[in-house]
Amino acid sequence: MSTTVSREAANRFELSELATKHVFRRLIPFLLLMYVIAFLDRSNLAFAQDQFKINNGISASAYALGAGLFFAGYAIFEIPSNIMLHKVGARWWLARIMVSWGIVSACFMFVNGTTSFYVLRILLGIAEAGFFPGVILFLTYWVPGRHLNRARGIFYMGIALAGIIGNPLSGSLLELDGFAGLRGTQWMFLAEGLLAVAVGVAAVHAGHKVQYFTAADLTEALYRGMADNSVGRVIENLLRNDLILLDEVGFAPLDDTGAQLLFRFVSAAYERRALGVASHWPFDQWGRFLPEHTTAVSLLDRLLHHASIVVTDGESYRMREARSRGGTIRNKN
Q1: Domain of 199: which CATH number?
Q2: Quick one: pLDDT band at residue 47, thresholds 50, 70, 90?
Q3: Over the range 109-132, which residues count as b (16 or more CB within 10 Å of their CB) and which as e?
Q4: Overall pTM > 0.90
């Protein structure tokens, strides 16, 4: 028994380490880039102080007040921003933060006095609110505790990299003074603001699109498509995702039509999209919830070709919870 438990724990640890490697290779560098640009758009204000005083009449005291107003907007909207990140998802919300702060940062090229300077500083704080704590929260979703400090350490490198990269970049952009009728500070705010917008847009398209279903949810969606003769279009829309996660397969038996619809979906996804399927039934017992032997064999043939199979043992928390609720599982994802 102890040997079985040890082997199972080792397998889970190996899978966790493999997933963590993917996170460090694909996710952490992009978050680091976002943090570098965040500090770039904060630090570029220092390069414009003298020009603001000469061209816009912004005194040292007004400049100091405007610099502080950024943190007022940031602090007020920090918690609401992180609540929204949890509700709508990190990819969309972090991208929204970058695009909005990039637009506001670029608008600093139009500053013409203290009022516009104050307004834009407040708006920049509001736009950027929640980015740093949002990323720290996001890392806890994807990185195990044993690797979390390393992930945070890499992310914090953005402060130093922003100085290494940003200062020469800002200085080079200031050298464009007079080009196309714009001052050097205007080129600096425009270029670095648009850079944030570009990275924000790229963040939306980065990574894979994943859709989660229970077997009951999926068959219900397919039944609705069959009712209005649009099941083919429903399946194609679902296959726009890169990965479809299908949970609770076999939790409730399927009738003939439901089994055929499920097979049609799996066949359409075969060698086109990645499927992740979870079931508490071993494969040799799928006939217990599928009404016809041929359908069960055909479905397993499609699912198991090029498949990676993970078998776990022990009591299921979700099944225990379902029994306590009288046979229903409430999806908390």
Answers
A1: 1.20.1250.20
A2: confident
A3: bebeebebbbebbbbbbbbbbbbb
A4: no
